């Protein structure tokens, strides 16, 4: 007798286990479900098996091959183009089925007596016999009703509560005569329960139900998957367990070492080639695959762990599922019902909350608390906030459901009845995200002043005038056109403090979110005259007469952003001759390569129209690149030095604020003008806070981040910077090329290296310990300074990526090249050493 093993299912409800496995190849007690079924068939005298495949067919074929290693003869039928359904795939192989045959599902676990079912079928001379079983709750199954002779008289597919007339359900196993397949169409999708069996019932064909005794479990979801494992260990289902039973209820594979101090409760299954460390506690119900390492003091309470996993020291696993090749680092907690997909990494002291699913090849950062499924992104971070707000892949990391919760978390940190502003750039994705944030905020009783689409400088300027508690701005990330950036402002329009960020993160991860009654839900209004308000502030901080009399010709490339709808109106008030490029609003982002091409075009236009200078505005009005009258770009460190030079020429004995990695050219310029340089951490928030807190600051920022004019507002503002440039060039009667030629000659180079998160802290400590304190500056990262000649090397960990940046600065180019190479080698050597230690500990 032949059996048809239906093994084409993709098992969507079992994901992430089935992301890279067909459902019948998911493991129960360290062997695929399909192998348990084949053992059942063999035990009942059925040794010819035809497997119908569709989803990832090669995995099953490679595992079973011709079946000889499993005591059966295996052949395969693959549905190449489209799934044909349960009966359609059997009709597709009708020529192989010329006598009574058995059909059995590839995703159910059972120990039914199939010989008795076959004997029943033959005794009744049935055309189709359905193997049935009794279940306590038949709501999720197809109910089959039989008469006193066990002839089938009615089918109910997943009945409602009022329709439950029987507790006998269809198990997906059938004994059929070949002629019933004549009722099915060729190469069309059809189903046994929905199509064939009702038709046979209608035609009066003899069809019976055999009520089988024994265990049956439809492994249809992750809860039943875990339960099937526990049932197998408890002996509720008869399965062939592939390991020696060392003691009653304790199956252990070959070449497995268990430390004498480990506590192992029964029943338990531990595969071959495993290493169980000192003082490990393994609770009854735990299933460990082959080649698993469990570190010292780990606590395993009924997890299911697949082959090749590494469990770190003091890890706590609770009734969860860990897929093959996954690494769970020390002191991590993975709680009840959580599932971690194959080849993932769970960092030290991370926590995965109950029921959370992690798709394959993901990384959970050290210390992260994951309480939502991780499907599309690559990493779950321990922090929501990075160097600059909350950022992530648009509509993958930053989704509507994420931002609703983020908005609610932020709102829960504010008093009920508070009001904040919400603004954005012009892109549809930013509109979607801002509306989701608004919904979350309103749910916590926070009121909204919606500024809609506007530039960030405008939003920052109006916040202090509206008596609001803060603001949010949503835009495409200035450096990543596929990323969204969400920034949070305080009531002065400055980015919120780290303490406030931590408070929002704590509320988000703990889900300590305030819910308001209907009467107290927040409201939304639209702010009016926002641009007029900004325009008045803009005008008060400018020497309007100098700008009006400048006769300057400027070419401005707006790169299709919202600033193109704002700045031309402002400059027109002052009679500026501005040639406008790319001012129309675009709904799609411009790539970095396209922006560089536009910069080249801008240089050509500046030359052609003989303009005084050109400007490319980016980052929704925060950043800019200059082009001098010869069409040559001025950016980065040169742009920083140029702006410091111009502002200190206009305001001698003033102060400027720059990030820690800025070239020492700014100090040389400050000395010329009896000025002061204040260096801060390399974050936008630190620059804004320092520019506001220190006396007599006329400029803050850098060519990379943008420039702050504290007298106007506390944020970066490229639009005001353009007007201020026109003013200063007019008053100082100089060109950009002349100013550039006056700048101090300093060699400043940087290099970026990969550095794992777990190594960053140790690297900084190592650098501090191996250098004398008088040569160190620890504003941000570690700066090693030569006091005699302004030479220094800065090692600065990246705030948002597993990177470390090296900056070398000196008047001596050879010194810069030599020191940069030396510290590259030192840092890399330390990283290699630390990772080597980690590997030894894991081994």
Explain the overall architecture.
The protein is an alpha/beta fold and 843 residues long. It folds into five domains: 2-218, Alpha-Beta Complex (Spore Coat Polysaccharide Biosynthesis Protein SpsA, Chain A); 245-380, 3 Solenoid (UDP N-Acetylglucosamine Acyltransferase, domain 1), CATH 2.160.10; 390-514, 3-Layer(aba) Sandwich (Alpha-D-Glucose-1,6-Bisphosphate, Chain A, domain 3), CATH 3.40.120.10; 541-742, 3-Layer(aba) Sandwich (Alpha-D-Glucose-1,6-Bisphosphate, Chain A, domain 3); 747-842, Alpha-D-phosphohexomutase, C-terminal domain (TATA-Binding Protein, 2-Layer Sandwich). Helices cover 30% and strands 26% of the residues. The strands form eleven sheets. An eight-stranded mixed beta sheet has the order 14-15-18-21-24-27-30-33. Strands 16-19-22-25-28-31-34-36 form an eight-stranded parallel beta sheet, with no helix packed on it. The two termini are 50 Å apart. This is Mannose-1-phosphate guanyltransferase. InterPro entries: A-D-PHexomutase_a/b/a-I, A-D-PHexomutase_a/b/a-I/II/III, A-D-PHexomutase_a/b/a-II, A-D-PHexomutase_a/b/a-III, A-D-PHexomutase_C_sf, GMPPB_C, Hexapep_transf_CS, Mannose-1P_guanyltransferase.
């Amino acid at each position: 007798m032949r059996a048809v093993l239906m093994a084409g299912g993709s098992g969507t409800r079992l994901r992430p286990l089935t992301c890279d496995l067909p459902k019948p190849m998911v493991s129960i007690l360290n062997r695929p479900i399909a192998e348990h079924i084949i053992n059942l068939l063999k035990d009942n005298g059925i040794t010819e098996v035809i497997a119908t495949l569709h989803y990832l067919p090669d995995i099953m074929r490679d595992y079973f091959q011709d079946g000889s290693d499993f005591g059966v003869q295996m052949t395969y039928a693959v549905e190449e183009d489209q799934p044909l359904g349960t009966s359609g795939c059997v009709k597709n192989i009708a020529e192989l089925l010329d006598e009574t045959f058995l059909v059995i599902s590839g995703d159910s676990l059972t120990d039914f007596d199939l010989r008795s079912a076959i004997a029943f079928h033959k005794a009744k001379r049935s055309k189709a016999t359905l193997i049935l079983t009794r279940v306590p709750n038949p709501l999720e199954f197809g109910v089959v009703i039989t008469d006193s002779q066990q002839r089938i008289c009615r089918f109910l597919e997943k009945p409602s509560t009022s329709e439950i007339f029987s507790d006998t359900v269809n198990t997906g196993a059938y004994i059929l005569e070949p002629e019933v397949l004549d009722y099915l169409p060729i190469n069309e999708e059809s189903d046994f329960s929905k199509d064939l069996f009702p038709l046979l019932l209608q035609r009066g064909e003899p069809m019976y139900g055999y009520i089988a005794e024994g265990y049956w479990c439809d492994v249809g979801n992750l809860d039943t998957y875990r339960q099937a494992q526990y049932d197998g260990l408890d002996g509720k289902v008869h399965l062939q367990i592939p390991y020696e039973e060392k003691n009653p209820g304790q199956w252990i594979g070959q070449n497995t070492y268990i430390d004498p101090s480990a506590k192992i409760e029964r029943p338990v299954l531990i595969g071959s080639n495993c290493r169980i460390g000192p003082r490990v506690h393994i609770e009854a119900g735990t299933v460990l695959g082959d080649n698993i390492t469990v570190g010292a003091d780990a606590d395993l309470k009924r997890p299911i762990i697949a082959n090749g996993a590494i469990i770190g020291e003091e890890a706590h696993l609770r009734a969860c599922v860990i897929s093959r090749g996954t690494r769970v680092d020390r002191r991590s907690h993975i709680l009840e019902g959580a599932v971690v997909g194959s080849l993932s990494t769970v960092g030290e002291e991370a926590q995965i909350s109950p029921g959370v699913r992690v798709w394959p090849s993901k990384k959970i950062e050290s210390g992260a608390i994951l309480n939502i499924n991780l499907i599309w992104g690559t990493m779950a971070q321990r922090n929501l906030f990075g160097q600059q707000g909350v950022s992530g892949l648009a509509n993958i990391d930053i989704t509507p459901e994420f931002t609703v919760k983020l908005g609610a978390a932020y709102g829960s940190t504010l008093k009920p009845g508070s009001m904040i502003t919400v603004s954005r750039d012009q892109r549809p994705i930013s509109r979607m995200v801002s509306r989701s944030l608004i919904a979350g905020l309103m749910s916590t009783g926070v009121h909204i002043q919606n500024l809609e689409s506007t530039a960030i400088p405008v939003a920052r300027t109006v916040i202090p005038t509206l008596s609001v508690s803060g603001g949010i701005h949503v835009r495409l990330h200035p450096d990543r056109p596929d990323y969204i950036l969400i920034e949070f402002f305080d009531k002065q329009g400055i980015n919120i403090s780290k303490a406030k960020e931590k408070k929002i993160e704590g509320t988000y991860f703990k889900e300590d979110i305030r819910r308001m009654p209907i009467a107290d839900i927040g409201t939304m209004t639209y702010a009016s005259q926002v641009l007029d308000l900004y325009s008045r502030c803009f005008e008060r901080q400018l020497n309007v007469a100098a700008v009006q009399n400048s006769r300057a010709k400027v070419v401005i490339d707006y790169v299709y952003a919202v600033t193109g709808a704002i700045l031309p109106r402002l400059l027109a008030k002052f009679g500026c001759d501005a040639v406008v490029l790319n001012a129309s609003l675009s709904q799609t982002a411009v790539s970095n390569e396209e922006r560089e091409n536009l910069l080249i075009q801008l240089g050509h236009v500046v030359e052609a129209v003989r303009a005084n200078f050109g400007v490319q505005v980016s980052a929704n009005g925060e950043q800019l690149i200059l082009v001098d009258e010869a069409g040559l770009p001025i950016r980065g460190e040169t742009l920083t030095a140029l702006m410091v030079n111009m502002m200190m020429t206009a305001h001698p004995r003033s102060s400027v604020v720059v990030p820690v990695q800025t070239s020492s050219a700014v100090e040389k310029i400050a000395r010329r003008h009896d000025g002061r340089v204040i260096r801060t951490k390399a974050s936008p928030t630190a620059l804004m806070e320092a520019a506001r807190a220190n006396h007599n600051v006329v400029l803050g920022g850098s060519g990379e981040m943008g420039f702050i004019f504290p007298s106007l507002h506390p944020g970066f503002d490229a639009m005001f910077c353009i007007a201020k440039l026109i003013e200063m060039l007019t008053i100082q009667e100089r060109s950009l090329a002349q100013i550039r030629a006056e700048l101090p000659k300093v060699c400043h180079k940087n290099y970026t290296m990969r550095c794992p998160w777990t190594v960053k802290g140790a690297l900084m400590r190592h650098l501090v310990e191996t250098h004398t304190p008088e040569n160190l500056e620890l504003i941000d990262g570690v700066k090693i300074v030569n006091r005699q000649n302004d030479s220094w090397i800065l090692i600065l960990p990246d705030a948002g990526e597993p990177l470390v940046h090296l900056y070398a600065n000196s008047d001596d180019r050879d010194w810069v090249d030599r020191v940069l190479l030396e510290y590259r080698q030192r840092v890399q050597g330390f990283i290699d050493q630390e990772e080597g230690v980690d590997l030894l500990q894991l081994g």
